[in-house]
What does this fold into?
Amino acid sequence: MAEWRHVQGSLPVAITTGEPAGIGPELVLRLAADGLLPSASVAVGDPTMLAERAAALGLGVTPTPCRPGEPLPEGPGVLPVWPVLLKAPSTPGVLDPTNADYVLGTLAAAVTACRAGHAAAMTTAPLHKGAIIDGGHPGFTGHTEWLRDACGVEEVVMMLATDSALHATRAGFDGPSELRVALVTTHLPLRDVADAVTAERLKRVARILEHDLREQFGIAAPRIVACGLNPHAGEDGHLGHEEVDTLIPALDALRAEGRDIRGPYPADTLFTPRHLAEVDAVLAMYHDQGLAVLKYAGFGSAANITLGLPLVRTSVDHGTALDLAGKGLASPASLGVAVALARRLADRRMAG
It folds into this structure.
């Protein structure tokens, strides 16, 4: 892991622009046009494409190329850009798998900048998994897993949080609108989930979650509650044996280590004010079990945080929205939350 060779707040958040046919490029431009990016921010993408999108949308933004390690250009409407060039021209709303390597190239550039001490953190705009796969990367499953492999770590954890929860550190949640939800498994077909929820994986994920709630979010003694895998948390083995055979022994072992982790509880009743008021995060067993509730509570104003990396990475809570691309209708709120969170987490990490 590269050392953090910089002064707090002095280095930019690197914002990858995501799938070029999606809304990512225009969201970055919208934040820049509205003055909502932190002063130390830099886009990672194709400057010509960004300039064309800004002109088409009537945004007074001038994407200006620069290089990592150099001072960022400044001035009215200037958006600094670390260049990564498209592989083929891109039209909003029209996927072209030829640009798969471009999208992955923006991620690689941001990771390299973070690890080299040229960026404080990275924030990612949405990509399109199908276009990446069709572009010659059949094993691709998403940002989270790609970053795990790029950074050479064994396990990472996907956690999403609503904007209000990102500011809370200990007072407890008032209700379902304030949520932090971490996942034991991420982008897997549902039929594969039960086999993937092993005792060792559950324990690794819970340890990373507790560690980063303390280190990144400043929660001195994190309180975590775990969902069951099956309906009614297995109903004592009558609706599935995973709780009895795997989840309960793993959670007991975590509690024996001194961790405040509760459950497993039925997921259909766990996401209620009575249960959430006394915890700092929910640990869901699979993607839609936790994220369907979180996105209902705070879609468009939540952020995705990858825990367990040697760098700070945040992202939006939505996809590429090809139907909205190029029309100026997509809200940049989630990207704004993600960039602001990346700045806060990076400053906390560097100060610590």
In short: The two ends are 17 Å apart (CA to CA). The chain is about 40% helix and 15% strand. Residues 96 and 349 are 38 Å apart (CA to CA). The mean pLDDT is 91.
